[in-house]
Specification:
Blueprint lengths: L11 E10 L22 E10 L2 E7 H4 L3 H6 L5 E12 L1 E6 L8 H8 L4 H6 L4 H10 L2 H16 L3 E7 L6 H17 L3 E9 L10 H18 L5 E6 L6 H13 L3 E6 L8 H4 L5 E4 L5 H7 L5 E4 L1 H6 L8 H7 L3 E3 L13 H12 L3 H8 L1 H6 L17 E4 L6 H4 L6 E6 L2 E5 L3
Parallel strand pairs: 1-4, 5-6, 6-7, 7-8, 8-9, 9-10, 10-11, 11-12
Antiparallel strand pairs: 1-2, 2-3, 4-13, 13-14, 14-15
Helix pairs in contact: 6-7, 7-8, 8-9, 14-15
Length: about 425
């Protein structure tokens, strides 16, 4: 995880905010990710302001109240760096809780094949898909991969994202997976936001282990995972459970190994086909992702757990699918829902969380407020970071995004438009339109 890195930043005052979305808990009793009707409460404050001191939120609310803060009065307004938000909208920086940035090149041949009518699975069976990226990652140097990851992180922050979960998964052997995680760490040190690394050694079975899934998973559990944990290269492990990849039983084995080495768990599930998920819930995974084909009985089980359902509609869009994750059913059942880009070279080459908000509203029928809560506070909980990320409350990290709009609903309304005017990480303005 990269540090917030804002402790030496001068005090920063964001003023002239038409709509401030604090995402504060709806009540004093509320804790954990948002569920059900709570998703529609974005903590809207009109005529707002935010004061950031030493990388943390010192005050966030109405300007009439923030201006009375002791720190502002003691230092004097002239000694505080002031950012005029020009009547825009300010909200917590997006938390993108599912990305795959450690790759060497886009998959353009796969793209053309899909246009010609080939499905995701047909492309994979023909030798394309995830395995296409493996050769490039194995050949690339750590420095080359780090540059690719850093480019992705900068693209994220240009659209208002301040925290990113970054997976390995295109190396598929011990050395290439560790190299990928090292590259993620190197890039994170150069980016002012926060990066949470995930080992996805169990992405698919590499060619050299075809028909030997158990043997490859044993390699992941006994060689790859322990080395990543010892070097503190990852906070989580992940696995792709679906047809053509791994089973839920494989995920149980991986999660057991992760628990032994002190790593959290998350998984890709039910993207292409339905799987029985309840055996995984005993491990209390932080997140289960995709869930396009999740069964009704598993939705009921998810609602009783802290596990977040992270939905990635960008993949459905790019793959040209008619079916999207059942967001309305999940929300109605009380499941904690997050949104993420699934940034990757094969099925979702976008770093834009605002675009994901638009897809969530138009294709999954989430309200703009639900989508924003899912992309901020619930994304933070999907990374076990709800105590420091995802809302604008005193003491939390000063990570914010300013948008050049007059109403927060415009974030999902304007399709594929980047209206992010400024991004703040750890109390520092790290991106500003025109710079």
């Amino acid at each position: 995880m990269s540090p917030v890195g804002g402790k030496s930043a001068p005090p920063l005052l964001l003023a002239n905010i038409r709509q401030l979305l604090t995402l504060r808990p709806p009540s004093a009793k509320s804790s954990g990710p948002r569920r059900g009707p709570e998703l529609n409460d974005v903590g809207l404050v009109k005529d707002g302001a935010v004061l950031c001191v030493e990388g943390k939120i010192a005050a966030a609310g109405k300007w009439a109240e923030v201006r009375k803060h002791p720190l502002l009065k003691a230092r004097g307004k002239k000694k505080v760096q002031e950012h005029d938000c020009r009547g825009g909208v300010v909200l917590p920086g997006f938390v993108d809780a599912h990305t795959h940035p450690a790759f060497a090149a886009p998959r353009l041949v796969d793209f053309e094949k899909r246009i010609a009518g080939s499905s995701y699975e047909e492309i994979a069976e023909a030798g394309g898909g995830i395995r296409t990226s493996v050769a490039g990652v194995r050949k690339a140097t750590r420095a080359e991969l780090a540059r690719c990851v850093l480019e992705a992180l900068r693209a994220c922050s240009a659209q208002g994202t301040t925290t990113v979960e970054a997976k390995s998964g295109y190396g598929l052997n011990v050395e290439a997976e560790l190299k990928s995680l090292q590259a993620i760490r190197d890039a994170a040190r150069e980016w002012p936001g926060t990066v949470v690394a995930t080992l996805l050694g169990a992405h698919v079975v590499p060619r050299e282990y075809q028909k030997r899934e158990d043997e490859y998973l044993e390699l992941v559990c006994t060689k790859m995972l322990p080395r990543a944990a010892k070097a503190k290269l990852a906070a989580f492990v992940d696995i792709f459970c679906d047809r053509g990849a791994f089973t839920v039983a494989h995920a149980e084995r991986l999660f057991e190994a992760a628990k032994k080495h002190g790593l959290g768990a998350r998984a890709h599930v039910c993207q292409l086909t339905s799987s029985t998920l309840w055996p995984l819930l005993r491990f209390e995974p932080a997140s289960l992702d995709h869930l396009d084909f999740v069964a009704d009985e598993d939705i009921a089980q998810l609602a009783r757990h802290a596990t977040v359902a992270t939905l990635v509609p960008g993949a459905n869009y790019f793959l040209g699918l008619n079916r999207y994750p059942p967001a309305r059913q999940l929300i109605a059942a009380g499941v904690a829902v997050a949104l993420a880009t699934d940034y990757n070279p094969g099925s979702s080459p976008t770093a834009s969380m605002p675009f994901v908000l638009s897809l969530a509203c138009t294709h999954m029928k989430m309200t703009p407020a639900e989508a924003i809560a899912a992309a901020t506070i619930n994304g933070a909980h999907a990374l076990a970071m709800g105590s420091c990320k995802g809302s604008l409350e005193p003491g939390k990290d000063a990570d914010l995004a300013l948008f050049d709009v007059r109403d927060y609903r415009e974030l999902a309304y304007w399709v594929a438009a980047n209206l992010c005017a400024a991004t703040v990480c750890g109390g520092r303005v790290i991106h500003q339109t025109g710079e």
